[in-house]
Amino acid sequence: MTLKVFADRMSQPCRAVILFCKLNRIDFEEVNIDLFKRQHLSPEFAEINPLKQVPAIVDGRFRLFESHAILIYLACAFPGVADHWYPADLSKQAKIHSVLDWHHLNLRYGAMTYVINTTLGPALGRPANPEAAAKAKKKLDSSLSTIESVWLKGSGKFLLGSYQPSIADLSLVCEIMQLEVLDEKDRATILSPYKKVQQWIEDTKTSTQPHFDDVNGILFRAKAKFQKQRENEKTKGISNATLHSKM
Amino acid sequence: MTLKVFADRMSQPCRAVILFCKLNRIDFEEVNIDLFKRQHLSPEFAEINPLKQVPAIVDGRFRLFESHAILIYLACAFPGVADHWYPADLSKQAKIHSVLDWHHLNLRYGAMTYVINTTLGPALGRPANPEAAAKAKKKLDSSLSTIESVWLKGSGKFLLGSYQPSIADLSLVCEIMQLEVLDEKDRATILSPYKKVQQWIEDTKTSTQPHFDDVNGILFRAKAKFQKQRENEKTKGISNATLHSKM
Lengths: 247, 247
Description:
2 copies of one chain form a homodimer.
Chain A: E1 3-7, H1 12-23, E2 28-32, H2 43-48, E3 56-59, E4 62-65, H3 67-77, H4 90-123, H5 130-151, H6 167-177, H7 184-191, H8 195-207, H9 211-246
Helix pairs in contact in A: 1-3, 1-6, 1-9, 4-5, 4-6
């Protein structure tokens, strides 16, 4: 029975899992669970993942959720996955766990909360929350600074000084890619102080093509759509202001 | 060279690591890093963990931080650790990773943020933050509800329906134990709807004695101290009110 991956590519951990499968030629069926249509809240999906979140996988009778747990499981359970993704060496594995554990309450929390409160929330009709966004931005900044100065220390191009990418590179780069949906000036300003982070994102992209662009393509389509929405609202704002000034 | 564990027992992930070492008779030296005295911010400790957080370990030339990564490493690197703590079986391992990954942005975030904004912050001279505490309480409640209905589903006494505890039980129970420093009525109210959670805490305590009480003893001393502080402030408040009413 083919591995099933329940995912919405608008979700960063989903993209990491899909990218991993494609890079390692793991045969899988991608089952789209549309978050905007709230399909993750359906009783059918709750049978797959009672936490009602994507990604989730079904491998035969085995069900699993949480993207890091999934990435580790896939790297161990499927033959032919190159060692660098999740090395058999205990110390190297431990360091990858360390980055992945750190990720949740740092880069993940900061980036996700910032994107939701500035962009995705308003796109779903909820008001932006500048106070929550400002708090999240601090965490996002400190996380990027930690990646720059701690996780990218060493001679290799990738996290933990490695010469080839691991599942940690996939998880963290997919998270940072979510910033593509922001206003482009804002995104550039956020990343601009972190030269090593920028180079690492490029290196991870390059080493995972053509799948990287395929899996992340949805973000650029969303970016264009949100940009148009913002411009429309700006125009509407200017029209209203003109109208008021004429009244 | 003996394993060194850099820790402050007031920190819940530190307690999980120390408890694991004691339960598995791992020979280790506990190096106290006093968080209240800000010893984790010293340049010496930054050499051990550049993220300036506890717990951290040094095993020979190998340095590691993040408690879940440490627990997995210890379970694999030290001989004689019983299989149930971190099973060799891939599916069981994956499920444990799933609980541990979930933990960070749910129980950990909720419990830690609630305790800091109601109790530990004020104990350190910072004002309580009722708004942040209320938000954290929601996350704490939903996390306890998930433990009750999802992670404790199954026939065994422990997480994932297991008959013996794993590193996930240690991590999550040590987090919930942090609630001991709250006002006792508040703590009881938070836990009261979750009967299975309460029983699971008791079962985890029982199965890890006498080390559980030894490692968590610091919390009960802190609880008594914070309770006294609260009573003093209350008395001061009443005296002030009496003084004002007489003016």
